[in-house]
Amino acid sequence: MLEIVPVKAFKDNYVWTLRNATHAAVVDPGEAQPVLDYLAREKLELAAILATHHHADHVGGIAELLQRHRVPVYGPRNEPIPTLTQPVSGGDKVSVPELGVEFSVLDIPGHTRAHIAYYGAGSLFCGDTLFACGCGRLFEGTAEQMYASLDKLARLPDDTKVYCGHEYTLANIGFAKAVEPGNAALRKRETRDRGLREAGRPTLPSTLGEEKATNPFLRCQEPAVVDSVNKYLGSRVSDPVRVFAAIRDWKNKF
Ligand SMILES: [Zn+2]
User: Fold this and answer.
1) What is the SS3 assignment for the chain?
2) What is the 79 CA–ligand 1 centroid distance (Å)?
3) Rounded to the nearest whole angstrom, what is the distance from the C-alpha of residue 53 to the centroid of ligand 1?
4) Using one digit for the tens of pLDDT, what is the confidence trace for 196-208?
5) Tens digit of each residue's pLDDT (9 = 90 or more) over 35-63
6) How far is the CA of 128 from the centre of ligand 1 (A)?
7) Residue 115 C-alpha to ligand 1 middle, in angstroms?
Protein backbone atom coordinates (compact mmCIF):
# COMPACT_ATOMS: atom_id res chain seq x y z
CA MET A 1 0.00 0.00 0.00
CA LEU A 2 1.24 3.47 -0.86
CA GLU A 3 1.96 5.75 2.07
CA ILE A 4 3.14 9.35 1.96
CA VAL A 5 5.29 10.50 4.85
CA PRO A 6 7.08 13.77 5.59
CA VAL A 7 10.84 13.67 6.06
CA LYS A 8 11.90 16.96 7.60
CA ALA A 9 14.77 18.98 6.16
CA PHE A 10 16.29 22.30 7.21
CA LYS A 11 14.02 24.40 9.40
CA ASP A 12 10.64 24.00 7.74
CA ASN A 13 11.03 21.98 4.51
CA TYR A 14 9.25 18.68 3.93
CA VAL A 15 10.75 16.03 1.65
CA TRP A 16 7.55 14.16 0.82
CA THR A 17 8.40 10.48 0.69
CA LEU A 18 6.12 8.04 -1.12
CA ARG A 19 6.68 4.51 0.06
CA ASN A 20 5.41 0.96 0.21
CA ALA A 21 6.97 -1.96 2.08
CA THR A 22 10.11 -2.07 -0.06
CA HIS A 23 10.60 1.11 -2.10
CA ALA A 24 10.39 4.89 -1.84
CA ALA A 25 10.37 7.96 -4.06
CA VAL A 26 11.16 11.41 -2.73
CA VAL A 27 9.92 14.83 -3.77
CA ASP A 28 12.25 17.83 -3.47
CA PRO A 29 15.14 16.46 -1.39
CA GLY A 30 16.86 19.70 -0.43
CA GLU A 31 19.06 17.72 1.93
CA ALA A 32 20.29 14.13 1.48
CA GLN A 33 21.06 13.06 5.05
CA PRO A 34 17.53 13.00 6.48
CA VAL A 35 16.42 10.98 3.44
CA LEU A 36 19.36 8.55 3.70
CA ASP A 37 18.62 8.10 7.40
CA TYR A 38 14.95 7.42 6.73
CA LEU A 39 15.68 4.90 3.93
CA ALA A 40 18.22 3.07 6.11
CA ARG A 41 15.96 3.01 9.15
CA GLU A 42 12.98 1.72 7.17
CA LYS A 43 15.09 -0.59 4.94
CA LEU A 44 13.73 0.95 1.76
CA GLU A 45 15.27 1.11 -1.67
CA LEU A 46 15.06 4.49 -3.41
CA ALA A 47 13.23 4.22 -6.75
CA ALA A 48 12.96 7.81 -8.02
CA ILE A 49 13.53 11.47 -7.23
CA LEU A 50 11.02 14.14 -8.28
CA ALA A 51 11.85 17.85 -8.23
CA THR A 52 9.36 20.71 -8.59
CA HIS A 53 11.78 23.61 -9.16
CA HIS A 54 15.44 24.52 -9.04
CA HIS A 55 15.80 26.21 -5.63
CA ALA A 56 18.60 24.71 -3.54
CA ASP A 57 16.35 23.87 -0.59
CA HIS A 58 14.45 21.54 -2.96
CA VAL A 59 17.23 19.99 -5.06
CA GLY A 60 20.40 20.41 -2.97
CA GLY A 61 20.43 16.81 -1.75
CA ILE A 62 20.03 15.12 -5.13
CA ALA A 63 23.72 14.74 -6.03
CA GLU A 64 24.50 13.02 -2.72
CA LEU A 65 21.48 10.71 -3.04
CA LEU A 66 22.66 9.71 -6.53
CA GLN A 67 26.06 8.69 -5.17
CA ARG A 68 24.30 6.04 -3.10
CA HIS A 69 21.27 5.23 -5.30
CA ARG A 70 21.23 5.18 -9.10
CA VAL A 71 17.67 6.31 -9.79
CA PRO A 72 15.89 8.50 -12.34
CA VAL A 73 15.59 12.17 -11.42
CA TYR A 74 12.52 13.95 -12.80
CA GLY A 75 12.23 17.72 -12.83
CA PRO A 76 11.34 20.79 -14.88
CA ARG A 77 12.79 20.76 -18.38
CA ASN A 78 13.41 24.49 -18.44
CA GLU A 79 15.20 25.10 -15.15
CA PRO A 80 18.90 24.80 -14.33
CA ILE A 81 19.07 21.52 -12.37
CA PRO A 82 22.28 19.73 -13.39
CA THR A 83 21.31 16.45 -11.65
CA LEU A 84 18.14 15.88 -13.75
CA THR A 85 18.11 12.72 -15.81
CA GLN A 86 14.46 12.92 -17.00
CA PRO A 87 13.44 16.51 -17.82
CA VAL A 88 9.64 16.84 -17.96
CA SER A 89 7.02 19.53 -18.55
CA GLY A 90 3.25 19.99 -18.64
CA GLY A 91 1.40 17.03 -20.18
CA ASP A 92 4.16 14.51 -19.47
CA LYS A 93 3.56 11.48 -17.28
CA VAL A 94 5.93 10.21 -14.62
CA SER A 95 5.50 6.66 -13.43
CA VAL A 96 7.21 4.92 -10.55
CA PRO A 97 6.50 1.25 -11.26
CA GLU A 98 8.06 0.10 -7.98
CA LEU A 99 5.29 2.00 -6.18
CA GLY A 100 2.54 1.44 -8.75
CA VAL A 101 1.89 5.16 -9.19
CA GLU A 102 1.71 7.50 -12.14
CA PHE A 103 1.71 11.30 -12.04
CA SER A 104 0.65 13.92 -14.54
CA VAL A 105 3.04 16.85 -14.79
CA LEU A 106 1.46 20.32 -14.64
CA ASP A 107 3.26 23.53 -15.62
CA ILE A 108 2.73 26.06 -12.83
CA PRO A 109 5.16 28.94 -13.40
CA GLY A 110 5.29 31.99 -11.13
CA HIS A 111 7.50 31.19 -8.12
CA THR A 112 10.14 30.15 -10.66
CA ARG A 113 9.88 30.33 -14.41
CA ALA A 114 9.29 26.62 -15.13
CA HIS A 115 8.01 25.30 -11.77
CA ILE A 116 6.04 22.05 -12.16
CA ALA A 117 3.63 20.03 -10.03
CA TYR A 118 3.02 16.29 -9.92
CA TYR A 119 -0.58 15.11 -9.69
CA GLY A 120 -1.55 11.49 -9.14
CA ALA A 121 -2.95 9.00 -6.60
CA GLY A 122 -5.34 11.76 -5.46
CA SER A 123 -2.34 13.83 -4.37
CA LEU A 124 -0.71 17.03 -5.55
CA PHE A 125 2.96 17.82 -5.00
CA CYS A 126 3.14 21.52 -5.69
CA GLY A 127 6.49 22.65 -4.25
CA ASP A 128 6.51 26.38 -3.52
CA THR A 129 3.51 27.37 -5.67
CA LEU A 130 0.41 26.60 -3.61
CA PHE A 131 1.05 26.57 0.13
CA ALA A 132 -1.40 25.65 2.86
CA CYS A 133 -3.38 28.88 3.17
CA GLY A 134 -0.80 30.77 1.08
CA CYS A 135 1.28 30.79 -2.07
CA GLY A 136 4.93 31.15 -3.04
CA ARG A 137 6.67 34.42 -3.74
CA LEU A 138 7.04 35.62 -7.31
CA PHE A 139 10.77 35.26 -7.84
CA GLU A 140 10.90 34.65 -11.59
CA GLY A 141 7.34 34.90 -12.85
CA THR A 142 4.55 37.46 -13.04
CA ALA A 143 1.33 37.80 -11.08
CA GLU A 144 -0.56 36.77 -14.26
CA GLN A 145 1.43 33.53 -14.44
CA MET A 146 1.03 32.71 -10.76
CA TYR A 147 -2.69 33.48 -10.82
CA ALA A 148 -3.13 31.17 -13.84
CA SER A 149 -1.05 28.46 -12.15
CA LEU A 150 -3.12 28.59 -8.95
CA ASP A 151 -6.31 28.62 -11.02
CA LYS A 152 -5.12 25.48 -12.81
CA LEU A 153 -4.51 23.74 -9.48
CA ALA A 154 -7.86 24.90 -8.10
CA ARG A 155 -9.63 23.01 -10.92
CA LEU A 156 -8.42 19.66 -9.62
CA PRO A 157 -10.95 17.70 -7.50
CA ASP A 158 -11.75 19.15 -4.06
CA ASP A 159 -10.59 16.01 -2.27
CA THR A 160 -7.09 16.24 -3.80
CA LYS A 161 -4.50 16.12 -1.02
CA VAL A 162 -2.12 19.08 -1.13
CA TYR A 163 1.52 18.36 -0.28
CA CYS A 164 3.52 21.58 -0.44
CA GLY A 165 7.17 22.18 0.27
CA HIS A 166 7.14 24.06 3.59
CA GLU A 167 5.43 24.21 6.96
CA TYR A 168 4.27 27.83 6.73
CA THR A 169 0.64 27.20 7.58
CA LEU A 170 0.15 29.04 10.89
CA ALA A 171 1.89 32.20 9.64
CA ASN A 172 -0.16 32.00 6.45
CA ILE A 173 -3.38 31.66 8.45
CA GLY A 174 -2.41 34.76 10.45
CA PHE A 175 -2.23 36.73 7.22
CA ALA A 176 -5.39 35.14 5.77
CA LYS A 177 -7.30 36.32 8.86
CA ALA A 178 -6.19 39.89 8.17
CA VAL A 179 -7.58 39.59 4.64
CA GLU A 180 -10.78 37.80 5.58
CA PRO A 181 -11.56 38.25 9.31
CA GLY A 182 -15.13 36.99 8.89
CA ASN A 183 -14.24 33.62 7.34
CA ALA A 184 -15.56 30.93 9.70
CA ALA A 185 -13.81 28.07 7.87
CA LEU A 186 -10.52 29.88 8.39
CA ARG A 187 -11.06 30.11 12.15
CA LYS A 188 -11.87 26.41 12.33
CA ARG A 189 -8.76 25.65 10.34
CA GLU A 190 -6.64 27.76 12.67
CA THR A 191 -7.88 25.88 15.74
CA ARG A 192 -7.17 22.51 14.14
CA ASP A 193 -3.76 23.43 12.70
CA ARG A 194 -2.60 25.09 15.91
CA GLY A 195 -3.45 21.84 17.70
CA LEU A 196 -1.49 19.82 15.15
CA ARG A 197 1.60 22.02 15.56
CA GLU A 198 1.36 21.93 19.35
CA ALA A 199 1.34 18.13 19.05
CA GLY A 200 4.47 18.36 16.87
CA ARG A 201 2.62 17.19 13.77
CA PRO A 202 2.56 18.63 10.24
CA THR A 203 -0.48 20.61 9.13
CA LEU A 204 -0.15 18.87 5.76
CA PRO A 205 -1.58 17.53 3.63
CA SER A 206 -4.56 19.84 3.33
CA THR A 207 -7.17 19.37 0.63
CA LEU A 208 -7.91 21.57 -2.33
CA GLY A 209 -11.47 22.02 -1.11
CA GLU A 210 -10.12 23.39 2.15
CA GLU A 211 -7.70 25.68 0.31
CA LYS A 212 -10.54 27.01 -1.83
CA ALA A 213 -12.49 27.80 1.36
CA THR A 214 -9.66 29.45 3.30
CA ASN A 215 -6.67 30.42 1.14
CA PRO A 216 -6.95 34.10 0.15
CA PHE A 217 -4.84 33.56 -2.98
CA LEU A 218 -7.52 31.18 -4.30
CA ARG A 219 -10.31 33.57 -3.32
CA CYS A 220 -9.53 36.61 -5.48
CA GLN A 221 -13.14 36.79 -6.67
CA GLU A 222 -14.79 36.56 -3.23
CA PRO A 223 -16.49 39.87 -2.43
CA ALA A 224 -15.05 39.95 1.12
CA VAL A 225 -11.52 39.46 -0.24
CA VAL A 226 -11.98 42.05 -2.98
CA ASP A 227 -13.30 44.59 -0.42
CA SER A 228 -10.42 43.97 1.91
CA VAL A 229 -7.88 44.37 -0.91
CA ASN A 230 -9.49 47.62 -1.95
CA LYS A 231 -9.15 48.93 1.58
CA TYR A 232 -5.49 47.94 1.53
CA LEU A 233 -4.93 49.60 -1.85
CA GLY A 234 -7.13 52.61 -1.16
CA SER A 235 -8.62 52.20 -4.63
CA ARG A 236 -11.10 50.05 -6.52
CA VAL A 237 -9.92 46.99 -8.38
CA SER A 238 -11.90 43.87 -9.18
CA ASP A 239 -9.88 42.15 -11.89
CA PRO A 240 -8.78 38.90 -10.16
CA VAL A 241 -5.17 39.15 -11.35
CA ARG A 242 -4.88 42.65 -9.87
CA VAL A 243 -6.55 41.45 -6.67
CA PHE A 244 -4.08 38.56 -6.56
CA ALA A 245 -1.11 40.87 -7.13
CA ALA A 246 -2.29 43.16 -4.32
CA ILE A 247 -2.70 40.25 -1.86
CA ARG A 248 0.80 39.01 -2.77
CA ASP A 249 2.23 42.50 -2.19
CA TRP A 250 0.31 42.85 1.11
CA LYS A 251 1.59 39.47 2.32
CA ASN A 252 5.19 40.44 1.48
CA LYS A 253 4.85 43.43 3.82
CA PHE A 254 2.77 41.72 6.49
ZN1 LIG B 1 11.39 27.80 -3.93
Assistant:
1) CCEEEEEEECCCEEEEEEECCCEEEEECCCCCHHHHHHHHHHCCEEEEEECCCCCHHHHCCHHHHHHHCCCCEEEECCCCCCCCCEEECCCCEEEECCCCEEEEEEECCCCCCCCEEEEECCEEEEECCEECCEECCCCCCCHHHHHHHHHHHHCCCCCCEEEECECCHHHHHHHHHHHCCCCHHHHHHHHHHHHHHHCCCCCCCEEHHHHHHHCHHHCCCCHHHHHHHHHHHCCCCCCHHHHHHHHHHHHHHC
2) 12
3) 7
4) 999 999 999 999 9
5) 999 999 999 999 999 999 999 999 999 99
6) 5
7) 9
Q: What predicted TM-score, i.e. pTM, was given to this entire model?
A: 0.97
Catalytic residues: 53, 55, 57-58, 111, 128, 166
Minimal CA–CA distance to 66: which of 79, 80, 85? Answer: 85
